[in-house]
Amino acid sequence: MQGFVELENDCLSLRLSTTGGAVVDGRTRDGRRFLRRHDDGAFEVLRSACFPLFPIGNRVEGNGFELAGKSYRFKPNTAEPNYIHGDGWLAKWNVADASATRVRLVFEQPRPVNSPYIYRAVQTITLDGATVTLALSVTNLGNETLPFGIGFHPYFPRTEATRFMAPAAAWWTEREGYLPGVRTPIPDSADFKTPRRLPRRRLNNCFEGWSGQARIVWPEVKLAADIAADPVFSRYMLYAPEDDASFFCLEPMSHTPNALALAGPDALHLLASDETLAGAFSITVSDCEDFQ
């Protein structure tokens, strides 16, 4: 059975689903949204406001990799041909503990299902004043050393005047199959080192060399969000579809999408049995009069 958890303080209100460990709504107490709201109807994680990524973020081209002379395989977990976003976003989570401003959710994979991984994931979401912090850890419960990666997939409201800033050093082009193409300097049209509007075209690109800092401004509602991510999240995916201008995604990630195919297991975090990979990012909202 699907369940929901409500978090609230004097500044913010957050709603979460135990299905997918997903945030389904994030807003200020006066009703201004800083995360997308799940629309009415049957719950679908891909229409939520944020969900966690692990033990691999994004797609695994070819559904496999080799490590120490052994081949490991994934099974596609959606209608797409490639395994995508890991397991937790499609599964039921348990509420380990909860209060008015904090919840800890646990997901455990005791045996391989769509991937060779056996692990435990813990997601802790906390409200502190005008800041929401999302923390994620994954622990290898298997006997083999395997490459792990973590991330988050938040959806932010997009308006005509929305401004976005997230400085980075380089980006990956996109090729067929929604996969990274080549790593190049960031083109001027997609360089967000200073606040600017998103271009009127599709974006589905990984930005590397990220400081972990980003800022979003919604002038129409005089609201801003400052994002701060732990150093483990040294890159982000930026997704803005052409056919829906109501949202965009800034996805903190610990590894480049399709890193297993591009660079091999060493491009992720190799965890031995009982080792843990962890990281957090926060969103702090504030009133903003910046209309530039």
Automatic annotation (TrEMBL):
GO terms for molecular function: aldose 1-epimerase activity; carbohydrate binding. SUPFAM superfamilies: Galactose mutarotase-like. It comes from the Bacteria. GO terms for biological process: carbohydrate metabolic process. Keywords: Isomerase. InterPro entries: Aldose_1/G6P_1-epimerase (IPR008183), Gal_mutarotase_sf_dom (IPR011013), GH-type_carb-bd (IPR014718). Its EC number is 5.1.3.3. This is Aldose 1-epimerase.
